[in-house]
UniProtKB/TrEMBL annotation:
Domain (PTS EIIC type-3) ranges: 8-396
Organism of derivation: Companilactobacillus alimentarius DSM 20249
Biological role stated in the UniProt entry: The phosphoenolpyruvate-dependent sugar phosphotransferase system (PTS), a major carbohydrate active -transport system, catalyzes the phosphorylation of incoming sugar substrates concomitant with their translocation across the cell membrane.
GO CC annotation terms, alphabetical: plasma membrane
TM stretches of this protein: 32-53, 65-86, 98-118, 130-148, 168-188, 208-226, 233-250, 270-291, 353-372, 378-397
Protein name, per record: Permease IIC component
Amino acid sequence: MKVITNWFQNSFSPALAKLSNMKYMLALRDGMIITVPFTIFGSIFMILANLPIPGWTQLVAPFQARLQSAVSIAFGILAVIVAIGMSHEMAKLNKIDTLTGTAIGVSAFLLCMLNNKFQIDPSTLGSDGMFTAIIVSIISSEIVAFFIRKHIVITLPDSVPPAVASSFVALIPACASLGFFWIIRVLFNIKINAVIQAIFSPLVGGLNSFWGVEFALFLTLILWTVGIHGNNVLGAVASPVYTYFLMSNIKDVSKGIAPTHITADGFLDFGMNIGGTGAILALVICCLLFAKSKRYKQLAKLGAIPSIFEISEPIMFGFPVVLNPTLSIPFIIIPMVLQGITYFLMKAHIIGMVIAQVPWTTPIFINGYLITGGDWRAPVWQLIELIIAVAVYLPFFKVLDRSAYKQEHVTND
């Protein structure tokens, strides 16, 4: 066991940490953030249009088209928004002009989304084009950066205005990038979006399965136990997939079709993220209700408010949970078990699937109700989950609390 632990801490964890700091992972993490305001805006109108209140559908029927227009604009061009975010972040990381890099990246993406008549098809600019937006933005930026690094650009005298000079500098790199994708999509008639979707299909299928999401949870949590921010490491890869699931669910609901993706973005609010990663709110409640030591009583006061708003770091590093063998077992087991149960509850339609997005700092119960489109059973289940989490954390917490209490009394004596 010690050999495995040492290997994980000394080899596996550093390798994953290095991976998370790669240029493309950083671009993916930061580039996707731009979608949040748009998805939340669209989700507000999605919730308003689909509240499960008797008579609500008839009440909003005259305004349904107007409500749906906000959903359509927010989610109908999501892939374009991803292309903007990814192209901008790649331009920054490649140290090229961000406006130029963003414009070229978005243009390259739109070129790749041409239909059989070689015209832009608006229906493909939503969730269906997300992965293409990511890949094309990365490749486009690398092509532009290559030409600039090799000085394969048009340079003008210093007397020329900077705005004019920069446009000429971008001329050859832009032609190279757009020409590359034009050859593939138009000259060779290769459907780039279809190819990229096929490449990502195993990852998409895996993360929409019980064992796939459980494995992702396990890696995230075990990285946290050794002091590595598991959400950043795994989130860079998993977050676009979960967002894709959410967009697909929203699109289905807006068409009157039942959602099909269980692990859509927001699914982890049912176990994993109760008060922050690892259901930390349950540990805070243990401190508030059962602590005898001054240390944990004080810690509860400091960590309670942040945990209510899904911020776990004060407890994660102040308790600490990180590098704490006593808490490692409940920290890993609780989210995996609760998310596993949630998976089957949603699959059996006992709880509604996620069809909306709220800010990640939205407190428990409120987030469950809103992201499921107003399903009252969601916050009830979250309450049950919280009680279970407190019950599981409690015996492990008492071991630590007794030890701290004894140390305080020995010190005082």
